[in-house]
Amino acid sequence: MFDTMTLTKAGGAVCGALLVYLLAGWAGEAIYTEPHVYGKEHAQAYFIDTGAEEAPAADTATAEVDFATIFASADAAAGEKVFAKCKSCHKVDGSNGVGPHLNGVVGRNHAGVSDYAYSEANLALAAEIWSPEALNGFLVNPKEYMPGTKMSFAGLPKPEDRANVIAYLAAVP
């Protein structure tokens, strides 16, 4: 059944398959990788545009605009719509939820609700007032503005949204 010719053909087939596999690997490497050139700059082999680099440029342009200017033209009705993101934790009916109620928060001291258990970070700022500027800074990124806060919200990236929410909260008694 197995003679010398059959074994030679089987061995040749295995060697031929390995050779094809090896050549395909080399061709793939040559096409999809860039040769290493040590000590010199080299370009990326390919680039996929995700638009991620455009976002910081837009943020820097809006960051140059003074918040007071944006806040002066804020719309409380639009802020009520944006406040829907906050309703899962905060209420404006005078009762606490997961977070403290936000009635009269604009102009109130940090940690100003007596029946709410604030974080140590917020209690440390109890003498400071929640001004529109302070709320703006907090709403950009709460964890960065007040390290140690219990608020896990990521923040509102658009300054118009922050201004509108603060205008809404200022209108809530």
Describe the 3D structure.
The protein has 173 residues and is mainly α. The protein has a domain at 67-171: Cytochrome Bc1 Complex, Chain D, domain 2, CATH 1.10.760.10. The chain is built from eight helices and no strands. The chain has helices at 4-32, 54-63, 67-72, 76-82, 120-124, 132-140, 142-145, 159-171. The protein is elongated. It starts with a helix and ends with a helix. The model is unreliable at 58-63 (pLDDT under 50).
Radius of gyration: 31 Å
H/E element order: HHHHHHHH
According to CATH, the homologous superfamily of the domain at 67-171 is: Cytochrome c-like domain
Structural class: mainly alpha
Distance separating the two termini: 97 Å
Low-pLDDT regions? 58-63
Salient structural properties:
173 residues, mainly alpha, Cytochrome Bc1 Complex, Chain D, domain 2, 8 helices, 48% helix
